[in-house]
Specification:
Layout: E1 2-8, H1 12-17, H2 21-28, E2 32-36, E3 53-57, E4 67-71, E5 77-80, H3 84-89, E6 106-110, E7 115-120, H4 131-150, E8 155-160, H5 173-176, H6 184-195, E9 199-200, H7 202-205, E10 214-215, E11 227-228, E12 231-235, E13 243-248, E14 260-264
Parallel strand pairs: 1-2, 7-8
Antiparallel strand pairs: 1-14, 2-4, 3-4, 5-6, 6-7, 8-12, 9-12, 10-11, 13-14
Length: about 270
């Protein structure tokens, strides 16, 4: 059994300074840890994890974005970013925030029976200035990348997708329609994953609302569970029978997001 855990830490150095990273490891004991929004280079923080191999894909811009994978089993291969042919095909280029493919947003670990991809999807921004990037470039390129990987072996992908897929995935859907994280375009991007055959692992086991992975810092949103489910683990459809559990670990503190995990019989 392999336990895969994904967590947007919103700054790994801050979580470590609070003394909350090691308790997270002890509580969940994952075989593979996928982190998003690390906001650090490997040399900027000392994560003392005995028994894990560490891989980092940090943004060119200091203190911004970034992903990491810690794995008990050494992967066959680790790939940073999206392939160059997709970057060219979908015309990735600098905007006022930077270049989305130089922000450390994607890492892929290849294992004998599957690929594991962790992703920190670009935020559409309050003014929706990155919505076009999301809709016309990022989501399409990322799905094509996953589909290309699937030609070789099944895929598990996880991370902060920065979208609530359905009305059940946020506490207050109606006032948030059309706002970042709940636009038709972003939800369409998630629909495309489902149409391509990927499975939202959490929804195999748990239906309905009230299950969230991110909460605003305002108005005690976390205490009141006024949140959004924007952190996911999806798998290729032929792995559905291998998924034995899928959980949201809202009890784990340290970030405005909480970890999500699956147990995979593989």
């Amino acid at each position: 059994m392999t336990k895969i855990c994904s967590w947007n830490v919103n700054g790994i150095r801050a979580v470590e300074r609070k003394g909350l990273f090691q308790p997270f490891i002890k509580a969940i004991n994952p075989d593979v840890i996928c982190l998003q929004e690390t906001k650090a280079n490997k040399e900027q923080v000392e994560i003392d994890l005995d028994g894990y191999h560490e891989y980092w894909n940090s943004a060119d811009k200091k203190g911004y974005s970034g992903t990491a994978i810690f794995s008990k089993v050494k992967p066959i291969n680790v790939i940073d970013g999206l392939p160059e042919d997709l970057i060219i095909k979908y015309n990735f280029s600098d905007d006022s925030y930077g270049n989305p493919n130089s922000e450390g947003r994607v890492m892929t670990a290849e294992y004998p029976k599957y690929f594991l991809v962790t992703v920190y999807t670009p935020n559409a921004k309050d003014d929706l200035s990155r919505l076009k990037l999301r809709h016309e470039q990022w989501d399409r390129a990322f799905l094509e990348y996953l589909s290309d990987l699937e030609k070789t072996k099944p895929v598990v992908f996880c991370g902060d997708l920065n979208v609530a897929h359905t009305e059940d995935d946020l506490a207050n859907p109606k006032p948030n329609v059309g706002k970042k994280g709940f636009t038709n375009e972003e939800r369409e991007g998630f629909d495309s994953f489902i149409s391509a055959g990927f499975i939202d692992s959490f929804r195999i086991f748990t239906k309905g609302n009230g299950h969230y992975s991110w909460w605003s810092h305002w108005a005690k949103a976390r205490e009141r569970n006024v949140g959004w489910r924007i952190d996911y683990i999806l798998t290729s459809k032929n792995l559905k029978g291998n998924i034995k559990s899928a959980k949201i670990h809202k009890e784990i503190l340290g970030s405005d997001h909480c970890p999500v995990s699956i147990e995979l019989d593989i």
